[in-house]
Amino acid sequence: MNFLVLVDSHSKWIEVFAMKSTTTMRTLEHLRRTFSAYGFPEELVSDNGPQFSSQEFADFMKAHGTQHITTPLYHPSSNGAAERLVRTTKNTLLKQVLEDKLSGQIRSLQERLDAYLMAYRNTPSTVTGKTPAELLLKRSPRTKLSLLKPSFLEDMRKNQDKQVRRENKCARKILGLVKSNPLFFQ
């Protein structure tokens, strides 16, 4: 099984696609889907695989105003972030397969991949202190962890209600206000 790994260099948000076939056509399908969700990147860095060095791929990049940069042959470390993520993805999926065998759980590759992406995208970066989801989406998606603790908005609403009740309890009613009468306060 091959994987197409896309990494946003700013937020470190990743998209991972399991691919039985790594043809240019299949690669472009995944890029179209990704670009339709997030927009066209200014540049795309890839290895020199045949799917990335075809004329069809070059035409696609040009049509979408994306500069295509390829890493030098036999030097994949020059695209280190993507190479590391491919390795991390494969290792994580392998661990999940082993854990599933031990626990007797049956999950598809896509279910495992979705679980990995949810965890990765919602884990704070040691560099930024924020999750890829927070940087890209400008919010934190709901996760299983957020179901365990009350949300910020819930807490804020409860605190506002308490404050209103406290203020109303101590407030005095002002009687005798008429529109035409002057109002003096100190």
UniProtKB/TrEMBL annotation:
Q: What is this protein called?
A: Histone-lysine N-methyltransferase SETMAR
- Signal peptide range equals none
Give an example GO molecular function: methyltransferase activity
Q: What's one GO BP annotation on this UniProt entry?
A: methylation
Q: Which domain of life is it from?
A: Eukaryota
Q: Which Gene3D superfamilies match?
A: Ribonuclease H-like superfamily/Ribonuclease H
Which Pfam families does the UniProt record give?
rve
- What is the protein's species of origin? Ornithodoros erraticus (European soft tick)
What InterPro entries does this protein map onto? Integrase_cat-core (IPR001584), Retrovirus_Pol_polyprotein (IPR050951), RNaseH-like_sf (IPR012337), RNaseH_sf (IPR036397)
List each copy of the Integrase catalytic domain by range: 1-140
Keyword annotations of the record: Methyltransferase, Transferase
